[in-house]
Amino acid sequence: MQVNSPIIYYGSSITEGGCAPRPGTAYTSILSRWLDADYFNYGFSGGAKGELVFAEYIAKHKNISVFVYDYDHNAPTPEHLANTHEPFFKVIREAHPDIPIVMMSRPDFDRDPKDSIERRNIIYQTYINAKKSGDNNVYFVDGMQFFGPVGRSECTIDGCHPNALGFMRMAETLYPLMSHLLRDYR
User: What is the pTM of this model?
Assistant: First the structure.
């Protein structure tokens, strides 16, 4: 059965599907096929930096089943991410108080573990702050789990951008959560 409202994705070139061997192998495309859901992919190579004007644009969508965002790769510094991540979330939440919001961190921890952990902690803090304020429809996905413990280096083309295997592992990791979140939209 089809999901009636689209999933909205916002993020980096990984969200965009950059380096996927074909458009249908990006994790966003795989998930949407498996979930029978339409989607908007606002993934931008180097361009998505948590701009509030873009959060306002997304917030204007009338119907959203789930909002997924993961732009930490494009934030030029951890400080930039800390200054934009929670405000971006709040714009979406204010416009759509009941939709599930999934916050994800980058999948390629192996490249720069210290920076990746710092960025993951910033994203996780947005999640914790939302939960503390009574928001029970927010979800955090630790990007470290996307590629799994074995064969991590085989999941990217350059240590950063997923290839078909990496995107498949991302989709496999996200599918149980997304399927659960969308059960009420079918």
Answer: 0.94
